[in-house]
Recover the amino acids of this structure.
C-alpha cells in the first residue's frame, strides 16, 4: 500500500486535550454577551469545546465557508442584516442543502409553508429553498421581521430556531427582556452560543488548531446563467446541449427537484452552468 508523506510531520505528536481560554469579550451582531455571568460563561465554554474538538466537522466548515460566504455576505449587506447571521446558516445546515426530519430544507432550513409566505416557489418540481441566493433573501426577510418584533438581533436569532411566538411567550412568562436571561429548552438555549462559537472558529481557525492550506479550501466554480422561460421536458438532454452532464446541472441548480422543468406560465428562471462546461 502506498503511503503519502505528511507535508509537515512536526504537526503530529502532541495529542494532549486542553481546556480553552474563552475570548475576553464576545458579541453577536454588535450586541455584547454577558460573560461576567457564570452561567453564560459556562454555556459559551461548552460550545467552544464541542466545536473545537469536533475536528472533522470544523475542518469541513472552514473549507466550505470559503466557498459559500462570498455568496451569502453581500446579500446580508444589501438586506441590512448583520454579517454575523451567516454563522446562523452554518449551525442550521452545516452549509449543505439538507432536509430535516421535520421538513425544513436548504442552507437556511426553511419550512415549506414559511418558504411560500416568504415568496419562494416551493413544490415538487421547483423548490427555491434550495436556491442559495433566493433562500438567503427569504431568510433576511424573516429575520428583519423578527428583529422588529423582538427588539434585538440576538432574540431574532433565537426566534429563527423557536419561532417568534415561542420566544415571545417565554419572554412574557418569565418576565425577561434578554435571551441570556431566559430559561429555554436545550436546542434554543444552546442556539446562540453555537453561533458564537462557530463565528470565532471560522474567523480565526488557526487559533483553534485548524490548519488549512489555501489550495485545500473549497471554492466556487465560475458559472454563467441561462435564461429559461419555457418548459424543459428532459433536463439531461438540456444539460448535454449545454456541454455538461445531468449531475453537474443538478449540483449547480439543486432547486430543480425533478428531471424536468414544468413552466406553463412562462416564468423566467435562471439556470447556472459552469462557464467552461465540464470541470476539466
Amino acid at each position: 500500500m502506498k503511503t503519502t508523506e505528511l507535508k509537515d510531520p512536526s504537526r503530529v505528536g502532541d495529542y494532549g486535550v486542553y481546556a480553552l481560554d474563552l475570548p475576553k469579550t464576545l458579541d453577536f451582531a454588535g450586541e455584547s454577551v454577558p460573560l461576567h455571568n457564570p452561567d453564560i460563561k459556562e454555556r459559551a465554554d461548552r460550545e467552544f469545546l464541542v466545536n473545537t474538538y469536533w475536528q472533522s466537522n470544523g475542518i469541513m466548515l472552514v473549507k466550505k465557508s470559503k466557498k459559500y460566504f462570498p455568496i451569502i455576505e453581500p446579500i446580508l449587506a444589501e438586506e441590512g442584516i448583520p454579517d454575523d447571521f451567516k454563522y446562523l446558516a452554518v449551525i442550521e445546515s452545516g452549509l449543505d442543502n439538507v432536509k430535516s426530519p421535520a421538513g425544513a430544507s436548504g442552507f437556511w432550513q426553511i419550512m415549506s409553508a414559511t418558504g411560500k409566505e416568504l415568496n419562494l416557489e416551493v413544490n415538487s418540481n421547483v423548490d427555491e429553498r434550495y436556491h442559495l441566493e433566493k433562500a438567503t433573501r427569504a431568510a433576511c426577510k424573516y429575520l428583519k421581521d423578527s428583529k422588529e418584533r423582538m427588539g434585538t438581533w440576538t432574540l431574532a436569532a433565537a426566534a429563527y430556531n423557536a419561532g417568534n411566538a415561542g420566544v415571545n411567550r417565554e419572554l412574557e412568562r418569565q418576565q425577561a427582556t434578554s435571551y441570556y436571561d431566559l430559561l429555554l429548552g436545550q436546542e434554543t438555549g444552546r442556539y446562540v452560543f453555537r453561533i458564537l462559537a462557530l463565528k470565532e472558529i471560522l474567523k480565526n481557525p488557526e487559533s483553534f488548531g485548524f490548519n488549512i492550506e489555501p489550495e485545500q479550501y473549497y471554492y466556487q466554480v465560475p458559472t454563467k446563467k441561462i435564461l429559461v422561460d419555457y418548459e424543459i421536458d428532459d433536463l439531461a438532454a438540456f444539460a448535454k446541449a449545454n456541454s455538461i452532464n445531468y449531475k453537474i446541472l443538478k449540483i449547480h441548480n439543486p432547486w430543480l427537484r425533478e428531471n424536468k422543468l414544468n413552466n406553463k406560465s412562462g416564468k423566467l428562471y435562471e439556470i447556472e452552468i459552469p462557464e467552461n462546461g465540464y470541470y476539466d
Q: What stands out?
A: The chain has two domains: 25-215, 223-274.
